[in-house]
Design a protein that fits this description.
This protein is mainly alpha-helical. About 55% of the residues lie in helices and about 10% in strands. α4 crosses α8. The longest helix has 30 residues. Bound molecules: tryptophan (TRP).
């Protein structure tokens, strides 16, 4: 039996953080035994809103690859590949642009949010508005049926499947499979400042390479319940950042429920729950940080991993590009 195929990736705009870990990395590590997995270092997509800082996009190719390997992505099971070195992705993206309208792109909720967040106003780079077609090319070129991503990406998978259906309808047969987003049930991890989303640019992220002091400082600064002034006061769990993090990271569910009950009743201090969270995050990040440092000391090896993954991806994606152009009936020389 052939394994189902996964394609997912990250823009190479900065090192990854705990939000990525909860949102997608944890799933990807779990999936690599049961699926044929490709991870895309999406440097071309990163250019769509970072063309004035190409050095950042270039330098973070290695940073993101280090994060993948440090959290336990095994290059013997998962192919890590570089988007800009896969020409079939660009060719398919160009083709797919004919299957979407500008109005549909402008209606994509992810794109709408991102345009607002980046403050483009009316000056939206065309490459940025059109990147859903490029992401559809990424996913379909690998014939991926499973896409483990954070919930903000769901609208992009939906648009991918619209393109797939149009291509298949035109070809008169199933040239491409539809893909399904796999989104963690826990939802998205809030930033350490309590804002809905953890992101490096918002300055509210804990990077996967955070030092012990950085972790402790972030936990210490987290707000809990502003009305929980004395230990004996009853406290609120909803909207309490420390409990949101315990929900995401504490494997002892029974203990978390017990702590919540005690906190609500009164008699459980903020310092106790913070100490527990600090211990858990230190234990999670310490081995990742150590492995990352070890890998960073042999970058040649990391580059070899990316090269090998990209070569394998090139074969797969070139074949799909050939099948799609042939299936649609383009002229062949
Ligand atoms: N859009 C993703 C992000 O913001 C990166 C990405 C590029 C991706 N191509 C993909 C994710 C294909 C899933 C599948 O990080």
């Amino acid at each position: 039996m052939t394994k189902p195929i996964i394609l997912t990736g990250d823009r190479t705009t900065g090192p990854l953080h705990l939000g990525h870990y909860v949102g997608s990395l944890r799933n990807r590590v779990a999936f690599q035994d049961t699926h044929e997995q490709f991870l895309l270092l999406a440097d071309a997509q990163a250019l769509t809103d970072n063309v004035n800082d190409i050095a950042k996009v270039r330098n973070n190719v290695i940073e993101v690859a280090l994060d993948y390997l440090a959290v336990g992505i095994d290059p013997a099971k998962t192919s890590i590949c570089l988007q800009s070195h896969l020409p079939a992705l660009t060719e398919l993206a160009m083709l797919y642009l004919n299957f979407v309208t500008v109005a549909r792109l402008e209606r994509n909720p992810t794109i709408k949010d991102e345009i607002r967040a980046r403050g483009f106003g009316r000056d939206i780079p065309a490459g940025f508005l059109c990147y859903p077609a490029s992401q559809a090319a990424d996913i379909t070129a690998f014939r991926a049926t499973v896409v483990p991503v954070g919930e903000d990406q769901a609208a992009l998978i939906e648009q991918t499947n619209e393109i797939v259906r149009r291509v298949n309808a035109l070809a008169g047969r199933e040239l491409l499979p539809e893909a399904q987003a796999v989104i963690p049930r826990a939802g998205r991890l809030p930033g350490v400042d309590g804002r809905a989303k953890m992101s490096k640019s918002a300055g509210n992220a804990i990077p996967l390479s955070a030092s012990p002091d950085e972790i402790s400082a972030a936990v210490r600064a987290m707000f809990t319940d502003p009305d929980h002034l004395r230990i004996d006061d009853p406290g609120k769990v909803e909207g309490n950042l420390v409990f949101a993090y315990l929900d995401a990271f504490d494997d002892d569910r029974g203990m978390v429920e017990e702590l919540k009950a005690r906190y609500r009743r009164g008699g459980l201090g903020d310092s106790t729950i913070k100490r527990r969270l600090d211990d858990i995050l230190q234990a999670l990040i310490a081995p990742i940080r150590a492995r990352r440092a070890e890998l960073a000391a042999s970058l040649d090896h990391v580059i070899e991993v990316i090269r090998a993954g990209t070569m394998k991806a090139r074969e797969v994606t070139d074949r799909t590009r050939h099948d799609v152009t042939e299936g649609l009936g383009l002229f062949r020389l």
